[in-house]
Amino acid sequence: MAKDRFIEVYDQGVTNVRKIIVDTETGVNYLLMSSNKTNGCGITVLMDKDGKPIVTPLNGEDRS
C-alpha cells in the first residue's frame, strides 16, 4: 500500500471543525476549516509571520 500523501496532525471541533493537514512530500502545512460540515469548507496554506509557508521537517530534513 502506498504511503498517504496527506496526514492530519491536529483536529479541533465537531461542528466548527479546524484541522491541520501536512503534505508528506513537501512538509507544507494546510488549515482546513468548516463552520458546518453540510455547508462545505475551506483550505489554505498556513503562513508564518514573514508570509512564508509553514513547513514541517520530514524524515529529519530541514526544508526551511
From TrEMBL:
Domain of life: Bacteria
Pfam families assigned to the protein according to its UniProt record, in alphabetical order: DUF6440 (PF20037)
Ranges of residues in domain DUF6440: 5-56
Entry protein name: Xylan 1,4-beta-xylosidase
